[in-house]
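Continuing the series of single-chain predictions for the mutant panel. This is the parent chain; the variants come on the following pages.
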Amino acid sequence: METPFAIRYHNIKLRVERLYKSTELKTEKEKRSLRLEDVSFTLKGGECIHLYPSVVHGLLLDAVVGHTRIDAGAIWIDHQGQWLNLPQLSPRQMRQIQARTIGYMGSSEALRSMPTVIDCVQSRLLELDFSHSQATSHSRHVLDWVGLPRSLWHKAPADLPLVKLHQVNLARTFAVDYSVVVIDLPMDHFDPDNQKRLQQLIEYRKAQNSCFIGCFDQVELRQNVCDRNLSIPIPTPIPRDKSRDQPAPTGPSTGVTVGSTVVHSY
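Parent structure:
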């Protein structure tokens, strides 16, 4: 449907409503359940939200960017004048939104499999129907923008040191003017120069009405770019009632069984 007037008036780009999602995380030592319960928030243009680090913040970011399906709730996005609920979209529609509206900045190491540095950037532009020459020209402009030496543009990302790979990741993320940008990587992995570049790029895009959400765990960066904090409630684990494992009494019952109520703390 067309984006409602109230949404446009309040400059809301993203709205999460009563989101529920559960999954299992398996490690060598244990298997644990991760759950999001009744998570709601809005994200406005020109705003940057810091997620307090928790065991489930990555699960929320995956849901917002469309990398995982939710169990219940809604994730509304303003996409080219249309107010769309992500869980109701087809895979093709979701890819269109990820190409044009919701940007994602993940691990820099994931770029090492790309053929060349310039391919890392222009591949996203080609998804937007740029011609090859337009994509190449814009990619060069953005790589200059983040200060990556031109001698590295046609190198394989696998051959770059991590510091330079972070610059490629910045160029890839900010080459497209996304409405919403999800940043899902540890900020303290960035060296000071790349943290400064990231700050400048976020400030520039915020001035253009883009909005950001991520776990900004580097204090100075968080203080400079984030407008507010968001704490994700973690449901209290339900303890096992060991009394239920006891055999039932064989004699006549003299007591009264009282049901237990589990209260989730938020």
